[in-house]
TrEMBL record:
Protein name: CID domain-containing protein
PANTHER family hit by this protein: CYCLIN-DEPENDENT KINASE INHIBITOR-RELATED PROTEIN, REGULATION OF NUCLEAR PRE-MRNA DOMAIN-CONTAINING PROTEIN 2
Transmembrane segments: none
Record GO terms (molecular function): RNA polymerase II complex binding
Highest taxon of the lineage: Eukaryota
Amino acid sequence: RVEHRLVLFYLANDVIQYSKRKRLEFVESWATALQKATTMVRDEKVKNKILRIFSIWEQREIYNEEFLTDLCGLLNIAPPKKSHPTIPDSEDYQNASLITSIRECVELSEMTDKSFKKMPKAPNCDIESIKQHLKDKSHSDDVEKELERYAAYIEAFNKNLQAEIKSRKMVLTNLDTAVKFYANQRGEVKVVVSAYKNFGSRIKLVKKKLDEITPTLASPIPSPDVNAPSPEPDADLQLPDEQSPIPM
């Protein structure tokens, strides 16, 4: 429950602030976990309380401004509504279905255009004229055939049009799924990028500390001169007496 997650954030806040005072490792080592946890407390019930914790960290210089800005960004990303379909996992989603549906829609659209172009000119629909033709038995069959032929073309066009509409709805559904999937992927990428930034900041901090203590370190033993003679294979080495202490 989101209330329990808030309690865990309070616990993490206590540990992190204590670690900051005692110079323990949890301040930096928990940074990546905080990024993932922040995405789980976007509920309006607790969002302001989480922002309050971030504000305290900023005031007490627990974390740097860049990292806290990333956390606030992750907190304010709007979560998907429950009524929306579930976003497919990276292993389940395949854009091949979207490509296939688009190609099918294009083919059906072309068929609809062809069937429309094949339609003959509209028959004479003047009621009085039709009555005159029907009175003449020699022309009544022609009028009936013309109407039946035109009805057949309209039926074929309507059939192709309905198939195209169905295909277009499928394209829209696949596009909507793709948008949700890639938006979710973008959010995960932002988390990874932020984690690498934080990791880079820690490396810089370690380097800074190393640079500070390097001048106080003892100088290394100098290497022998390149022109110094090497000992011969059969030469006796002068080893220290086993009873005598070896100088450090």
